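hey so i finaly got around to running the thing on Cation channel sperm associated auxiliary subunit gamma from Canis lupus dingo. pasting the sequence first so u can double check i didnt mess up the copy paste, my clipboard has been acting weird all day
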Amino acid sequence: MALCGRNSRVLPALWALLAVLLVPWRLWAIEDIEECTWQVVLNKFETVGKNGMSDRFFSQEPLETVDNVFRPLVDAPTDQDEKYLSFPYYLKINYSCNGESSEAQVRKGHLTGLKPVVLVTFQSPVNFHRWKIEQLQIQMEAAPFRSKEECIAEEVCVMSWYTPMPIKNGSVVMRVDVSSNGLGPFIHDKRFQVNINGFLQRQQDDTLQFTVGNEIFNLIPRYFVNVPSRPLWHTVDQAPVLILGGISDEKFILLTDTSFRDFFLVELNIDSCWVGSFYCPQASFTATIYDAIATESTLFIRQNQLVYYFTGTYITLHESNHGSGSWVRVLANECIKRLCPVHFHSNGSEYIMALTTGKREGYVHFGTITDGHVSFQLLPKQRSVCEGIEVVNCSITWAVFIADDYNLLMLVEIEAPTTRNYFQVVSYDLGDPSLTSVSTLPLPQPARGLEFLMILGTESYTSFPMVPKGMFYNPYKNLLLIWGNFLLQSYNYENFIYLADFPKEESIKYLVNSFHGDMAIVTETEEIWYLLEGSYRMYKLFPSKGWGMYINLQMMHQSSLYTSNETMVTLFYEDSKLYQLVYLMNNQKGRLVKRLMPVEELLMYHQLSDHYLLHQRGNQLTLPFTNFCPFTVIRLRDLPNPQVYTRQERYQAHPPRMLEPSGFHDENSLAVYQGLIYHLLCLHSKYLKPYADPVHDSTWRWWKNKKLNRDYYFYLASNLQSASNVYIDMTSYEKIYDLKAKHELPERIFLDKGTSYSFSVFLTVRGHSINLQDGGASRAEALTPKVDLGVVLADPGCLEAVVKEEVLTNRNSVLFWVTLSDKRSCFDQGISGHHLLKTSMLVKVVGTVGRCFQNTHQGPRMQGNFMVPVLIGCPPGKRLAFDITYTLEYNRLQNKHYFDCVNVDPEMPCFLFRDIFYPFFLIQDLVTGDSGSFQGSYVLKVIGGGPTMDTIREYSEEEIYRFNSPLDKTQSLIWTTKNTTTTKDPAFNIMTHQSLGIEWLCLRNSPCHDTIPHTIFAPEFFFKVLVSNRGVDKSTYCDYQLTFLLHIHGLPLSAKRALLILMVSSSVFIGLVILYIVFCLLLPVVVKACNTLRWKINNIITSESYYTYTSPSRIVSGTSETKSKVSSSVSSKVVEEKEEAPVETSKKHSIT
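ok and heres what it spat out for the 3d tokens, dont ask me to read them lol
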């Protein structure tokens, strides 16, 4: 830009003033606040308290070492019968500030009351068929710990804070947010990516080694200097490990598990074969890794025409160790020219696409990754794309997968024999295999003149050809982008908008999207362009005058992140912020750094340099800078509590209190902290049992038997009598249900059927207020045109937005009320968190794109645009539970009695067969803590059963119909009800909370008929019951499915079996009676016979003893005979007297 005459004297002043305005406020403002930042590393148990130690996150199994620490805690609210486990890692937390060492700062912070607060967010898993979909967080307060190094001071030289690093099954990606408790120095909140690296293994010498290859420790400049940048492809928010290829003539990749906060250069262990042939035209061989894509547990690479994958070892995902031992080569007989990523997972799987060339030209190999298992299918199935669109020769340039429509869009180049090649967008429906040509792209580029142009076919064109190179799809916006030496965007795949700001001389190499409303574009010449979605204005960020000015200012500030010689390696978004991975050369030494792209600063410079006017004041020209932002203040108000819409479950935990005067923790107290956090998350995972607890809280069972002794535990701690000097406060481990909004829109919004989200936007109009003499109506009319608020919906057929305006004339402001509602029309019923429809809402103040910024302590921030992803369907965290407490109470009231089983099970009470059964259910919100009676309709089915827990079997579909349908005619019904409402074919009873109850039948052909009792008590039966509201409840998108066991006792016997038992019992009873009578009649005879027999036996014994003791001498013999005769005569007389005595006695009795 040139100024003539005296205007040229203004130019130096202009650039100087721009430079001053662009300098960050912290460079010229008084620095009352020190620039401090958090530092976080991982430590194993063995390295706690050791300075300078950090560990890699690869161990995933719990440890059993902490159980011994809990044994001495006898007078504490812990369960001695519980086996306590722990996680394998701690988070070690420090911070540092400019000008002082970290050790001194940490001591200062501790002495002033600083305690870091760590918030760990677990990413939901991909495979929702195996794992529950939930948005889970745990907030922990860090515990101070003294270093184990020798120290001459009495108290502390070096210290740090520690918290357990929890692990959750199904999650390998964790965000760690560190903030302050509000005391001590001011430290900005900071987020860290702490992910599990499943591509490491421990060697015999206790060192770690990569399983995918060998680590290269020397990052020489040749690998990065003047090497073209390449895209970073991965499954958004799901990949714990990111990889980046593109290093010339080397089979190297950059690998990171912390989003490039640190990284490794790894040489891959692949065979590097080249199987080029006549059907696979490969011009030359190179070792370069061209395409690299990371998914949740699997890495994919392409080298030449070969494709490899490697599955990591993730026990938390697969529940088994089935990681790859080496790189697996797939599609061995195919010639692959490109890998295309699929940025989002769906249906419990991730996807990848391989484009073929050579003999398979016109086909796509569609890859599916489920639980680390990779499979490919060739699409289209019947015929190639070329045959489907009826052309002779064609080539697929790019492909995108649209999961919501289960559709594959392909950019196809068609060879024309007489004219230039042209391109078509071809759609392939995977559900109903069919090919459709969606649109044909124009050959020449349209003429310029406007920011954008709707291509209708009637516009004028230039002679410059359009050369498409790829496509990009944003599912939240339903936005399809086709890029090359142009940029087209479409919301219906047919009508395209041409963005005229992008120069036709450049060619786009790849796109980077934040999926939160903005995107960046990288060209073949390494230019960086920026586009805010919802607008058509494109901004050139690099190279630009603003970039040069910013670099100079950073070098003046001696920043270590900028040099004059640098090469961009890749560009990517993280947490809606644009980052660069750059190789810096300084004094012949190079290093890789990750730095934030200063988008707001560059846009501010662009605004100041492009929009200015020279005003004449006397003989001088002045340079006033006009702020083109239509407002001075923008605030979000009346925001509802976020958890209802974000579905974020959060637990809170504090470390156990140490009773030592210093307050520092030791290894035992940290181990107790580990065990308590592990147990807390175990209670969370076990809470999804079908029988609802009396109190809707996962921690209720933990403390229900210990709360009576709370004052006793506190008394012991107050008198320093607690075991192991550790006091566990039961109120420190709880679930939070009432988080408050933080004056910003949530990260995402979940909407159920007919629900709405409301908030307000307060805007203060820029400019002076209108004079008071103006009427109120004229003032309102003057304010309204200055600011307008628009709401853009990606799916207006599914969502509706209502905006109401209120003019606050006395405050020179306008208040907009925004209500976003679901239209009840775009989603069928689904399981909680499954198959959600992705869409979005964009709230924008008209005329603010690239014009409105707010200065904050972290730099300028763009204002006026709010993009919120919206997920329509059944929100995560809702479930149906059997309300056993109210069911027992109501059944006792209706039946006038309640009889439990003989063997009482408090977890599964019994119900009597002859009683009418009245079931009740609860809708429990695990996020907000709400629990209320289920008021909708549902279908109850018995889907399994058995007389014992061990003999329960699942019923077939045909059996389920016979056992439950009122239309059954085979005498197989298990139960019936007096309700007459039924579903469609096959008919089942529809029930509500006001139903008349269930009557148990167990007819002749049912499985519970004629149950054989195993004891003397009545027969029992366990029914496996399924309760579902699918298809019968129109009040929600949620398909509530509850399966639980119902214990029924007192089942009747069949008539035949009852008669048989009666006959057998009667026969046995009569036989016993007859036996008793016979016994009583024969008893005297038997007794007399026994006495006679006994007398005779005695006589025989006596006579035998006489002959046995006869003497051999005659004298002795004679004497013995004499004595024996005498004794025999005497004995005979005695016997005669005894025989006569009863006769005399009888005579005496008869006389009396």
